[in-house]
């Protein structure tokens, strides 16, 4: 066991390997408030990567309704239960145990292995709220204490301290030094499924035909061409951003992910207390009880929710959020001026421009043009 | 090519370089092929000429006609649109404003609304509307989906414009509440009266006490939510490509959503199978009897999902799943454990028995079928009166029923409860861990000392 | 013995003892060989003596009469608890081993009780297997950690999955695991075969575990420590396994020459040999296995 720094926990922790942060870290930011659970992302991913025989059940990207949705069944309830009481000292330091620190004798990680049936009903709990509509569906209070639900977008977190890597006795899983993407070496894996037990997010999966584990590859062939992932570009809600996160001591506020995660701290990690330093970050939903959100995203949720509620008066943040889903290209910096948000590539060239407020244009009623040398006239109507 | 009246963009899907899969044809190729065959059969060359573009492999003339004929796309050349879309750039619809705001020229300018007066009208003077008591917007109970007297107009006070022709005026006793009569029945009730009334089926058999709704699934038009294995797997809580529960019809399955309170009263659990029966007068079909050969093809069986969002007494089933047919029911009999797929046709049902439409039927509304109503034309800006498809015409979508429910089978294939219920992950019987999880109790925060 | 465990400490000790014993070892082993000649060996704890056979070995026939000539040795098994991840509980305690050789090959018959045949891999579904471990160089037994850096060991592993791959002609995938699976459109329905196969990444990348068309159920690997198993480019081992009446009977055979792998298994020599058994039904896989301490395998001199 080595001592590594986990900034999300505000402390050092035990990990089987010494820390070796990649040059830059692949990250995805999700604005949970905008998701409509259409599963376009899921299908974009599946039709690209997991169409093969033996991968029928496999969803590297999945959307689940919280709190009753799970893929696989019960994944987060189970790991939280295993870990027991999880304590934060104020907002900064996690004083409970991580899955590495709580590993039982003979194991490297505290984990559980999903039963094969747990991979069925991947959309269980869809749209299911808490509470009951037996008496009323009128919900006067905010956050909603009676009935609430929201959608959680899930891919592999390409963790800084992956449990899958820690548990693999073959060292068949590795983290790419250039972008921190975590991959299963398809020639080395011997199908022991230790990663399936170890990964608390349950994002390694066993291919039933090739008998080895597979997982989300962060669409690295697209990243290498400067493009965002399939789930990002297919997203109807424009709530995803594929980008790179700097190491915590090299934060650059001009970069979008650094700004959201480290400067504004509006985007929070998923179950940070597990200790993996996951690299997918979530803008928490604004209508859900704080206690539940704290359990899921750590102690920063109140501040993040507050900031999101005020985003309309915060052009820098609003502009950045508006740039989500507006281009397939990965962009590096942005600015907002005259009501327009602009994203730039590494050379400072503009990639895309998005108005903060959609303008309305009015056209004349009568219309005349020429098509293939012939005059065409008509009238314009809205209704 | 695609566009809609609310979306400002006009799109063409660029011609794919990939060959069509399997031996498939698009609709217009089928029509053109049939026309060509008929042309030869009856020696009528014009039938072939009509489809010349398709038969020559170039459908653009037809697309161009659509563009030239539509107000908001006139002046667009299909070839330009296609080229632009190949580069990923759609064209704009040529409406008055971008984005399009409905009613903009009526609200901002002096264009008339499509009514006799050119104004917004909230009073319908036509005799059909007066007879229906609907000259003013009124609340009517649904024809079937109500706990109370069907189709009654709710009015707590007398009002001169709510003076409909009553059943007696048509020679029908007011007490006649059979399923056909229910659909056009002008009786006015106060809430005090209505509240005490009962649906006629409940009067006969108190087991009939659920409003059954079959709305469109939010992510599917028509059957798209179940058209392919993956989508069906993601549709609802019973998806499984491996069909580990051998009873399931396919990679997903139809279900009825019940509130947990109702489920409990009925003694059904999440994941159980139920039978659902509507008015036996005409459903699942007229004169149905349980020893008919096709009774279990027509009577619907579904899984139950307990859904905390359902109000008391309401059951919902999504309206997008393929119905059982004689072939699919027979297939599951012949090959127990196999899918509900007709081996002869390949057709797949998402129901083991029946369909959501086993419990619903269409109703006609006279106020949608008048000859006097002034309305806009389907195409263009003309005003006319009476029938116009999709504008003033009955919508026969069968969406509602009043039903009773009976447990059919346990949720687990070998008896007992559905596995997620057993695991304590469902609202019906949450485990201690699930309760702690819902309350966010696994995490605690201690306040930092200053 | 049901709860026996071999710990890291034991492993280091056994390794050390074997190394220390090497100087006398040559003599000791010879003495054992002589002892076997002169009197019938006890069943348990005795060296495994490979009788010399003139002619073919029953390399793929666990039911051959030829095995009747070989003296079985009872080898004790225990849960692996040297390297993480551990196997928690010992559920099979005995492996019966016997051996034959003919100067050009060595064959072992391995038998253990297992009334559940596990020969498909799936999600939390693991296969039965057995392995024989031999040093690559003559001399003392290496530590019991599947070799160590610079000290490779030679391992022959028979897998029930591979046996079924062969017996069924490669029908060991999703259609067998879940016969009621629905495939709407699979890549090979619509793509040219070369492209469609790319969806089986590990298979296309040449991972030996990912293949289903194969000629031998026995994989030949070398290892230099836990987790370092390397598939040999040239596979020479053969074998066959059957499960009858709740007992696996598996033959594992390898050419004596061991070209490119290690010193030849010459008649008259003796070798440390270790064993491992996996019970698929008990989720044994990888390091979660039953292991035996180093035994002695004596190859009888030619008659
Ligand atoms: S989410 Fe799971 S699979 Fe992905 S890197 Fe982290 S531990 Fe590994
Ligand atoms: S595509 Fe976007 S909106 Fe749709 S489910 Fe995925 S994340 Fe949510």
Explain this structure to me?
The complex is a heterotrimer of chains A (383), B (450) and C (303). Chain A has 383 residues and is an alpha+beta fold. Helices cover 19% and strands 23% of the residues of chain A. Chain A contains ten helices and 20 strands. In chain A, strands 12-3-14-13 form a four-stranded mixed beta sheet. Chain A has a three-stranded antiparallel beta sheet with strand order 15-16-17, covered by helices on one side. A two-stranded antiparallel ribbon of chain A has the order 1-2. In chain A, a hairpin with a 3-residue loop joins strand 5 and strand 6. Chain A starts with a strand and ends with a strand. Chain B has a six-stranded mixed β-barrel with strand order 7-11-8-10-9-14. Chain B has a three-stranded mixed beta sheet with strand order 4-5-6. By secondary structure, chain B is an alpha+beta fold. In chain B, a hairpin with a 6-residue loop joins strand 12 and strand 13 (383-385). Helices cover 19% and strands 29% of the residues of chain C. At the A-B interface, helix 1, helix 2, strand 5, helix 8 and strand 18 of A face strand 3, helix 6, helix 11, helix 16 and strand 15 of B. Strand 18 (361-362) of chain A pairs antiparallel with strand 3 of chain B. One iron/sulfur cluster binds at residues 156-159, 162-164, 182, 199, 201, 203-204, 215, 276 of chain A.
Write a concise keyword list for the protein shown above:
heterotrimer; B: alpha+beta; Barwin-like endoglucanases; 6-stranded mixed barrel; 16 helices; 12% strand; C: 303 residues; alpha+beta; Immunoglobulin-like; 19% helix; binds iron/sulfur cluster
